[in-house]
Amino acid sequence: MSDTPNLRQAALDYHAFPKPGKLEIRATKPMANGRDLARAYSPGVAEACLEIKADPATAATYTTRGNLVGVVSNGTAVLGLGNIGALASKPVMEGKAVLFKKFANIDCFDIEVDESDPEKLADIVCALGPTFGAINLEDIKAPDCFVVERLCRERMNIPVFHDDQHGTAIVVGAAVKNALHVSGKNFEDIKIVSTGGGAAGIACLNMLLKLGVKRENVWLCDIHGLVYEGREVDMNPIKSEYAQKTDLRTLDDVIPDADLFLGLSGPGVLTPEMVGKMAKRPIIFALANPTPEILPDLARAVAPDAIIATGRSDFPNQVNNVLCFPFIFRGALDVGATTINDEMQLACIDGIAALARATTSAEAAAAYQGEQMNFGPDYLIPKPFDPRLIGVVSSAVAKAAMETGVATRPLDDLVAYKRKLDGSVFKSALLMRPVFEAARASPRRLVFAEGEDERVLRAAQAIIEETVESPILIGRPEVIQRRIESAGLNLRLGDNVDLVNPENDPRYRDYWETYHKLMCRRGVSPDIAKAVMRTNTTAIGAVMVHRGEADSLICGTFGEFGWHLNYVTQVLGRDGFRPHGALSLMILEDGPLFIADTQVHLHPNPEQIAEIARGAARHVRRFGIEPKIAFCSQSQFGNQGEGTGGRLRAAIRLLDDQEVDFCYEGEMNIDTALDHDLRERLLPGNRMQGAANVLIFAHADAASGVRNILKMKGGGLEVGPILMGMGNRAHIVSPSITARGLLNVGAIAGTPVAHYG
């Protein structure tokens, strides 16, 4: 239950407003006219029905079944609430469905069944088989849950997964695997003492045996004490498998020298005195909710070196099933698995464990600001909001399903599948693919002016992992090193990342003399040049590019665009290079949309507008997209003499004379640019087909305003801004940019000048 009345009311309001509940159903196809109705229902729907009758496997093509999970419960063992009944369990099952959608884009129906007989419940679930691609059993009490799952798995040819058992077991398995890695112990050597003989507890022990633990080293206790041979109280065949032949009877009797305590029972079960009897560097998984078997501070008071996990989010190492179930179902559904077997579960464990040992993602760090997330005693498993989970875990599960012969729709290319999964959470991933491929073809040196910014550090880490580029950081080494360690990054100054210390660098004299030579007839004295090269990291980065010590500068994580542009132009605006405009790529739900000029020219003249269009066309093609450029204004095809229309019309005439190789049209309103039919009504036979994908404005306020509205209200993800006209030697980002955004700009900057303009 919630800790305070305020939290309780907030939770109730969350469920009640603005609509009751947490789910709704939306159509995936248009239903705008009679033609749509005829295809969606009678008579067109008959064609899909006949195809499925002829080949049942086509249900995955013509219906949602291949991406639909049923969450089924009878409400007999709900969270820490116990047997509250099917109806009262509905908020939990709706929540489970929401998690499926949020983390793995799996559609889900929650089904609450008022049936306590396990065999009858299994009959009901099996009868629902034609509806679903998989079944998630939830919150069914033990031992009934074992019966229901066994019967359903025997009779249904789709995955049936009791998450309370196997989801918990998988996450516990991953956490124990990494805890043993940290403590230097092995599965086959450890002694385990477990409390809780329910579904989750037994499943966790079964999983640990599969990982190498010896059955004779497992001591299971429940509310009645140790499970031993000959005990008759509260026993069942599954619990009896862990019965020990011994005279010991209590948890206190068996806890001495235990390497791992696994608690899935209740509060206060493990006392500090018991912890003191455990082996050196004990591993304590106190997973009871909301109050664990022992609080971490009590355990550490006795064993400071203890490695501790709980089921709570306010302590490190939360064992949370959401790390598992969305992704194991995603992989199983995508290959049409007939079951979720041991190999798929072990692959899930390996994926989760490996991800925790890898560098923490920037997105997870942003979601959990202030938390330490370097692999070690307090970070054994990744966070649920780590976007890499779906790609790593689901592809591992799919691979295991194919290798074990349970996949009815095996994938041809696992690498492409993982890339697609990553693209489902990283909006920019698929669109940026050709840019990253070009960047990998030629190693380049990227200098980051704001090298002390954590976003920059995380981007540098990702650049090292995902490209062949070499990051250079400008900043104070002690500050950068401290932040690298705090973020748990694998950046080594002077090794895989270079450093320029503005306070003390051996190249300082070379830099200020270079800057003075460039600026001496613009009022910059030697003293001013010295001061700039000590304090202005953008100018330092630009000088490095000018001197050939870096190939491209990335700056702007703080400060105003024009301020950075001034120094970039001073140093690098030579030999035909000058800023033409700033181009932003907005990734929207229905595809990409480019916008220019958002930054460089406040009121561009016709020549500048034409130049912006030519630059935009070149850059758009870098993403594998053929540009269709619309010049946008309040004026529509010459109907207004005032405003920006005149300058846009003059720019169009310039492009007409130049015979450029891209499609453009205008001037027109934004809706006209994006609506082919509307444009045809206003100007039949115009030169553009379909919707424009590049919008160019003759006023920076308009361009920037559209960009920001799409970003803040339209759910658009911005890539850029891309500084056009500088030969890819500098890019100025916005202060709101994320680490992923910096990685994308780094990939753009990583393309050689020959590819650019």
UniProtKB/TrEMBL annotation:
Sorted UniProt keywords: Multifunctional enzyme, Oxidoreductase
PANTHER family, alphabetized: NADP-DEPENDENT MALIC ENZYME
Domain Malic enzyme NAD-binding: 165-402
Pfam families: malic, Malic_M, PTA_PTB
Family affiliation: In the C-terminal section; belongs to the phosphate acetyltransferase and butyryltransferase family.
Positions of the Malic enzyme N-terminal domain: 20-153
SUPFAM superfamilies on file: Aminoacid dehydrogenase-like, N-terminal domain, Isocitrate/Isopropylmalate dehydrogenase-like, NAD(P)-binding Rossmann-fold domains
Protein name: NADP-dependent malic enzyme
Keyword Transport listed: no
UniProt feature coiled coil, ranges: none
Organism superkingdom: Bacteria
InterPro entries cross-referenced by the UniProt entry: Aminoacid_DH-like_N_sf (IPR046346), Malate_Decarboxylase (IPR051674), Malic_N_dom (IPR012301), Malic_N_dom_sf (IPR037062), Malic_NAD-bd (IPR012302), Malic_NAD-bd_bact_type (IPR045213), ME_PTA (IPR012188), NAD(P)-bd_dom_sf (IPR036291)
